[in-house]
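User: Fold this, then the next.

Assistant: Folding the first:
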Amino acid sequence: MKKLILPVFLLCFGFIASAQESKTSFFLDHNVYSYRINPAAEFDEKPYTFFALGLGNTSASLLSNLGASSLLYPTVDGLVWGLDDAISTDTFLSKFAKDNIILPQASVNILSFGHQGEKGRFNVEVNLKSDNYFYASKDVFAAAKDGLYTGLKTKIGTWAFQNMNVSTSSFVEVAAGYAHKIGDMVTVGGTAKLLLGVAGGALDFNSFHLTSSDGDNFYGSADAKLLLSSTLFKIGTQNVGGKNLYDFSSFQFNKVGLAGVGFGLDLGVTVEPVEGLTLGLSALDLGFIKWNSAVNGKIEYSNKKIDVVEDALELQVADPSNETRMLNYNIHLSAKYRMPFYDRLSVGLLGTYQKYFKEARLGVDITPVRPISIAISGAYNNFGFDFGAALNVRIPGINLFLALDSIYFDMTPQFLPVSRGITNATVGLAIAF
């Protein structure tokens, strides 16, 4: 298997560690990280300063219409992969949608501090982020189940798919933000970000076609490219049959270094047209990272005889090249109304538009006493329905923040989603005074 692209597929997901920010937290009062959703978020009524080291705001999210039940199956001999001969093709393929998406993301706040005054607010952060994406059509799994296994054994059938995409990026984010109130109605804000790439990768399988010919042989055509960028490893090459191929048996760990550089920008505005009603618009993660290539490979052939899996998936060395990839942007449109009969109760609506994720979320917040704010929310997005809850506690010297955007969640004992995965968990602890 040393010539295969499959180890690369696993390598890409080995980096899974920018994350979805908690949407339910948007509805909370007194949340020091409210600028994460909108840099121009409402000002607290009292000035404050906050500082956090290592535990400021850490979140992990998983958005997917796949789960463990799509890939793992119980048998009398224990769990087996769906590609196993013990699992029928119809059973295996029934667990997949026409379009299958997995979006695992994570963000770890290393350092943050900031201050909010009466008219201005600034913040500085250092974060470690990982943003990952997997897309495959149902045809990809059909080709994997029958084409590359049963088909190669019998030399019968035709299997094809288009557009399987895997991407991963892990980077350090150094951010500085500022917001300013203009009069009594308008607040504007922005955050500038320097992005330092740790590891990145992209696999774009544009097309694959495998078919029987003359009754005894399989012939295939493929068009795919792979880019991995990291100083953490080295992969050697070897010449086989006049072709220069990557040799994954020569994989070696290397030193930590810079794999890419990029820039990002968050912009936001809020308006209070009438007392108690706040309207907001923000655009987050507008930017890019330019990745240096450590592995630049391709799978490219036409009408090639295929006898074993290695023949179909061998990775050839391509010319070195860098690649610029855009960040996974977020656009938020929001409205929040504080009840005139009880100013510690508010309701709100938050709309989110992202390249792979769209959602409308309705939330309610109550602050029975100033130190405690509790929010609940319900949402509908392109992965289904969602229900969340959040808590913010601010006592002298401490601000504790907990949020979960999905309370319903079927998991295995190993904490893997059974059917679909829609969740976002965030925890934060800051010194606030």
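Now the next one, as you asked:
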Amino acid sequence: MKRLSERRREVSLYLIFGAGTTLVNLAVYYFCAQVLQFGTVLSNSLAWALSVLFAYATNKAWVFKSSYKNLLKAAYELISFICCRLATGILDLLLMLVGVDLLHWDGMLMKIFVNVVVIVTNYAASKFLIFKAKDN
């Protein structure tokens, strides 16, 4: 069982990098939707892809300190991460389509709300499914 200080460190780093991931997601969405005038789906998809790359790198290296020597385990971890993020990416996209395109709610406010839902879901998946086992 992890010591309390280790759990606090992990949660704190996840929140810090989660905020960074959210900022990447919001900035890319804003730039694509407002500046480039891309549609909701394209803007949101690009924002999701770049934020997933940022999240994987930071979660692997600093939050969960995962480093596999076994190439198959490392590949499984990456594939699991991408699959879980794809699932929450689809959730993100569906909620944005409903909120922005169907209900005509403000895109940025909806994006902030959706990011909260996605961050909580992603932490649970990362903690309990993806980065749970290590062979350092």
